[in-house]
Design goal:
The chain has 123 residues and is an all-alpha fold. 52% of the residues lie in helices and 0% in strands. The protein is built from 6 helices and no strands. Helix 5 crosses helix 6. The longest helix has 20 residues. The termini are far apart.
């Protein structure tokens, strides 16, 4: 039994060493999410400092009113930040693109009405 433990430990050490020295060949195959390195703020004051505000989407009023919430949605901020970086647009445009994308994902038209053929609206 002692030989099995010694053999398994020795083989694990050899495999770990081989993986360490050959990591340049296989590390690009490991999926690493982008958000691991982007620590996003979790309060309105941090959101304002990081550019998640504008004249049309003013967070200063929330801060002045003493809003106790944690800030904007983390997943939404992450997606808006990704759009801002990839398309090189400002916060308002990135927010508009994010909302249009979420509408499309939920089968809602650009005008805000559902695309469901069974939808009935009385105006």
């Amino acid at each position: 039994m002692g030989y099995m433990l010694y053999t398994i430990s020795f083989l694990s050490l050899i495999i770990a060493t081989a993986l360490y020295f050959s990591r340049n060949r296989w590390i690009h195959l490991v999926p690493i999410p982008d958000y691991v390195y982007d620590r996003l703020p979790s309060s309105f004051s941090n959101d304002i400092e990081n550019g998640f505000t504008s004249n049309d989407f003013d967070l200063h009023t929330n801060l002045a009113a003493g809003d106790s919430r944690r800030g904007l949605d983390q997943q939404g901020k992450r997606e808006v930040q990704r759009i801002m970086k990839s398309r090189r647009v400002n916060f308002d445009e990135a927010r508009r693109l994010y909302v249009e994308q979420s509408f499309a994902n939920n089968d809602i038209g650009a005008d805000g009405r559902p695309r469901d053929p069974k939808f009935v609206s009385f105006s």
